[in-house]
Amino acid sequence: MTATTLEKAAIGGKAATVEFRGLRREFGSTVALDGLDLTVRPGEFLALLGPSGCGKTTALRMLAGFEHPDAGAVLVDGEDITRVPAHRRDAGMVFQSYSLFPHLNAVDNVAFGLRMRKVRTAERRARAAELLELVGLADKGERFPHQLSGGQQQRIALARALALRPRVLLLDEPLSALDAKVRLTLREEIRRLQQELGITTLFVTHDQEEALSVADRVAVMRAGRLEQCAEPAELYGRPATAFVAEFVGTMSRIPGVLRGDGVEVLGQRLPVDGDAPDASDVDVLVRPEAVRVTADETGDARVIATAFLGAVVRLTVRLTDGTEVKADVPAHEAAGIGAGTAVGVSLPARPVLVAARTTR
Q1: Which of 48, 281, 285, 343 could serve as a FRET partner for 211 with CA atoms 20 to 30 Å apart?
Q2: 262, 276 in Cβ contact below 8 A?
């Protein structure tokens, strides 16, 4: 793409700061948002991540102006826009379902918002052509939605959202209807465009891999509340709560006992990372890559399943109490460790996250 194209297609003006302050929204007896406080930095790509019903889409729709809070406020660059109509919010939105007009070709779909704003025909068609080039579809302008693949349709929807030069770009699970290969390609394309244009972007997804791979920060939500907002590496490596630890990535629970300021687990005594529950019996939360497994004829644990993942082999190990633990072992070290192998299991000598013990 040429510098001229980028210059013409650029959003213009500084990227916006977005703030959610104490947002609360109820639908009958269901609390969708329960006092959400969150700030999105200028030019940041922030992912809202969480299970269905956690409130992430409700928060996005409030920023778009499609929903209004029962309490709290939405601010953009310090301006309270909570009651500003959606068409005056200067936000572009891309939906999961594309929402293209079937009777309009790609150029006219991209230019639709400009047409509603009474922009002259020549100007809006030129603007649409520039954006189609930006998303790699310069030669598809005369095609109708039914003549385009799902990935191409979503690119058209993205170009349409950018046509009005919004200060904020909102993406509501835009990749979930696509197959895996197209989803991977398009998420990389969206990230590239976002970085080039410098636009503040909120991306709603329930796919943790998607969120961790593209976002500057990830906000994990649960039952209408924010559990943690952090950069992907921190979120994965230092989860603030047991929910975040188990929702983001794979996590095993191993029974342990709190004694003083440490926890006894697998015959070891380890320091505790963060707060501990008010009980002596706890679960120690560990990632597969942190579990050490060695073949040991005298070991009490046994491998019950293996899965080849390329560079590593994921072992499922059953401990003597029936607990199953996931462990990632380098593929070159996993030779001879198959199902039924007796093994020893240990953890590295570093702080571990603990949580209230679950009923087994």
Answers
A1: 285
A2: no
Tally of CA atoms within 13 A in the half-sphere of 232 that contains its CB: 13
Q: Which is more confident, 117 or 199?
A: 199
* SS3 of the chain: CCHHHHHHHCCCCCCCCEEEEEEEEEECCEEEEEEEEEEECCCCEEEEECCCCCCHHHHHHHHHCCCCCCEEEEEECCEECCCCCHHHCCEEEECCCCCCCCCCCHHHHHCHHHHHCCCCHHHHHHHHHHHHHHCCCHHHCCCCHHHCCHHHHHHHHHHHHHCCCCCEEEEECCCCCCCHHHHHHHHHHHHHHHHHHCCEEEEEECCHHHHHHHCCEEEEEECCEEEEEECHHHHHHCCCCHHHHHHCCCCEEEEEEEECCEEEECCEEEEECCCCCCCCEEEEEECHHHCEEEECCCCCEEEEEEEECCCEEEEEEECCCCCEEEEEEEHHHCCCCCCCCEEEEECCCCCEEEEECCCC
The reported pLDDT for the residue numbered 14 is: 64
As a whole number of angstroms, the distance between CA 15 and CA 200 comes to 6
Tens-digit pLDDT profile for residues 239-277: 988 899 999 989 999 999 999 889 999 999 999 988 888
Mean pLDDT of 327-339: 91
Euclidean distance between CA atoms 310 and 290, whole angstroms? 18
pLDDT in tens, 27-74: 999 999 999 999 999 999 999 999 999 999 999 999 999 999 999 999
Residue 315 pairs with which residues in a beta bridge?
306, 327
CB-CB contact of 178 with 9 (8 Å): no
Cα–Cα distance, 216 to 229 (Å, whole number): 10
Q: How many CB atoms lie within 10 A of CB 76?
A: 20
Cα separation, 189 vs 177, in Å, equals 16
| Contact predicate 165/114, CB 8 Å | no
